[in-house]
Write a structure and sequence with these properties.
Structural class: alpha+beta
Oligomer: single chain
Helix content: 40-55%
Number of helices: 5
């Protein structure tokens, strides 16, 4: 799913009365992967990451490519503490993957995340702006980590 498809999916789910978490996930040092191992391996990392996430979320959750090496994840009926545990488990599992098909080199990679808990109706642009702030905070605090908060109007 791409960004436009995700926006359309979210728009159809109005009113947004239930608890959910909106998460921005960004692969750490992705440019170095492309530079060191080539774009084919970079594509494999993106595809593998998407697969890792999709096999660990519920059918009611949605993942989309947001742009470049950034992904948007919507977790339905979950609070930020449980979302952070899920994201951390996905991160740990993904970091253990080191055997890539498109290179003979073994390397691991990680991601950082910004997680916003929302309930009731919300403006997606405002939520994404807060997710982005948290994502950058995670990167500033050492990468390979998550930062979370509740949505503030």
């Amino acid at each position: 799913m791409n960004r436009r498809a995700m926006y359309s999916w979210l728009e159809k789910r109005k009113p947004r009365n239930s608890l959910k978490c909106i998460c921005l996930l960004d692969l750490d040092h992705f440019k170095q992967i492309n530079d060191n191992y080539g774009h084919l391996t970079g594509d494999e990392v993106l595809t593998s990451f998407s697969h890792f996430v999709q096999t660990r979320i519920r059918k009611t959750d949605k993942l989309s490519r947001f742009g470049g090496e950034e992904f948007l994840l919507v977790l339905d009926s979950i609070d930020k503490e449980k979302a952070q545990i899920l994201i951390d488990n996905i991160r740990e599992s993904f970091q253990n993957y080191i055997n890539w098909h498109t290179t003979t080199s073994n390397f691991s990679t990680s991601f950082s995340a910004g997680i916003i808990e929302v309930s009731g109706d919300f403006e997606l642009k405002q939520v994404l702006a807060q997710c982005d702030v948290l994502l950058y905070k995670a990167k500033e605090n050492g990468r390979a980590r998550s930062e979370s908060a509740c949505f503030e109007v």
